[in-house]
Specification:
Largest sheet: 7 strands, mixed
Helix content: 25-40%
Oligomer: single chain
Structural class: alpha/beta
Number of strands: 22
Strand order of the largest sheet: 16-17-18-15-14-19-20
Shape: globular
Length: 487
């Protein structure tokens, strides 16, 4: 092992940036800590304006060649990247579990296979992408999808590699080059992926990875005049900062932000299904932007729902995420744990009651929590906690259910449990949300639009919507006359 590599449970990970097809060190580093036990994983190269500028320059230099690469060849390379990911699923799973604390079994069975699927899906979508030509008074209109240029992608820590490739795959498929800035609390799989992609044949400079701590590298990237697209997943305050920087250069930006999503449980619902859906919101220790953290239950069934929920949630096993029998792992960082506990303790002080949980465990573990007796305008109902904390409120009819569901500044997702198809149609039509699930949760298809309303985001990605964002669409109008061949 060199001074620039880590051994993460037998997997070697480089700690330097990946710029222009080469490893680049920094003068300064930051510490990466595992949430499992608080152990130091290693010192990570800390990017500055210099590394950010070098990455943009590398992406700009590589752009003409990659943009000119025929669609079929770009798709072939992206499929090769997916093949390489599938061969390294175990390594990627091990590294990400140590780095962000999510369940190892989830990484093996779902998250890392999804990384490969992201590349395959957008490679295939690229090959079939196009609009039929259309006629205007004998003139032919032809729409083309032109690559935009270097794209800055800034990704969160809760599903680091999957969410990075959700942005990266369509950006690369469209013919753009990428500068990825992973979250400072979970940077390792992005670095490992850079090696995997290069070995699979992705040309130098097409993908660049700049690791940062604090705001310097990120600010330098989003304000760079040579960047042509910015995609960010994270907090509302950071999005506002990025939006201001993007506006200065008139750069299109896509934001997937926070959520405070509701789960509406009507009296006609399959109650066992509804309880299962509610308990599922503790997935990834509650660190899921789409999670339905506000449970709204029709008052006639609230007592029985709470009894069944308590019984099922209390059986969840919290512990080491590397253990196959663990249901809930740690929260990402001590700062995040303190934030979660602050929300809960303030709610309890204000009169909320903890049906279960309401306390910290040892290390970076927070007990799954359900709070009742909460006011609609209270902080715990209105603000995103991003931890294993749910609230429960009751309603008397559809109108009140919808009013409570929509009464936050967010609009990312909503879940509805009902046995009445007519009610499902009425309620979903009235909900403010980018995604609504009925009698299910977290069913995602990459061809569907994804994004949030209100403070939950700007723009939609997925399928053609991703290419709408990552491309400059051009319409060419061909006249029927003036051709030498008269054809």
């Amino acid at each position: 092992m060199s001074e620039h590599t880590l051994n993460v449970a037998g997997v070697t990970v480089d700690t330097r940036h990946w710029i222009g097809g080469e490893r680049v060190a920094s003068a300064d580093t930051f510490v990466d800590v595992s949430p499992i036990d608080g152990s130091v994983l290693g010192e990570i190269a800390r990017g500055t304006t210099a590394e950010a500028s070098a990455a943009v320059a590398a992406a700009r230099a590589a752009f003409p060649g990659w943009a000119a690469t025929p669609r079929a060849e770009r798709a072939r390379i992206l499929h090769a990247v997916a093949d390489a990911v599938e061969k390294r699923i175990e390594d990627l799973s091990i590294v990400e579990t140590h780095d962000n604390g999510a369940l190892l079994r989830s990484h093996r069975r779902g998250v890392m296979p999804r990384v490969a699927h992201n590349f395959r899906f957008f490679a295939d979508w690229l090959v079939g992408l196009g609009h039929e030509d259309f006629d205007t008074r004998g003139h032919t209109n032809h729409v083309s999808w032109d690559p935009a240029g270097p794209c800055v992608l800034i990704t969160p820590w809760n599903a680091p590699l999957m969410l990075a490739t959700w942005k990266m795959a369509p950006a690369l498929a469209a013919g753009n080059t990428v500068i990825l800035k992973p979250a400072e609390w979970s940077p390792l799989t992005a670095s490992l992926f850079a090696d995997i992609a290069a070995e699979a044949g992705l040309p130098a400079g097409v993908l660049n990875v700049v690791q940062g701590y604090g705001a310097e590298a990120g600010n330098a990237l989003v304000s760079h005049p040579d960047v042509r697209r910015i995609s960010f997943t994270g907090s509302v305050p950071t999005a506002k900062t990025i939006a201001a920087a993007a506006a200065a250069n008139l750069v299109p930006a896509s934001f997937e932000l926070g959520g405070k999503s509701p789960l509406l449980v009507f009296a006609d619902a399959d109650l066992d299904l509804a309880v299962d859906l509610a308990v599922e919101q503790y997935d990834n220790a509650g660190q899921v932007c789409l999670a339905a953290t506000r449970i709204l239950v029709e008052e006639t069934i609230a007592q029985e729902f709470t009894r069944r929920f308590t019984e099922k949630a209390s059986a969840l096993r919290q512990g080491d995420p590397r253990d196959e029998t663990t249901d809930i792992g740690p929260n990402i960082h001590t700062r995040q744990l303190e934030k979660i506990d602050g929300f809960v303790q303030r709610a309890l002080t204000a009169g909320a009651r903890a049906v279960i949980g309401g306390r910290r465990g040892e290390g970076q573990y927070y007990a799954p929590t359900l709070l009742t007796d909460v006011a609609q305008d209270s902080e715990i109902v209105q603000e995103e906690v991003f931890g294993p904390v749910l609230t429960l409120q009751t309603f008397t009819d559809e109108d009140e259910a919808v009013r409570l569901a929509n009464d936050t500044r967010f609009g990312l997702a909503a879940t509805v449990a009902t046995g009445d198809r007519g009610r499902a149609a009425r309620v979903t039509d009235r909900l403010v949300a980018g995604t609504v699930w009925v009698n299910c949760f977290f069913v995602r298809d990459l061809q569907a639009p994804f994004g949030g309303s209100r403070h939950s985001g700007v723009g939609r990605e997925g399928g053609t919507w991703s290419f709408d964002f990552y491309c400059d669409l051009k319409n060419t109008v061909l006249a029927p006359k003036g051709w030498r061949d008269h054809g």
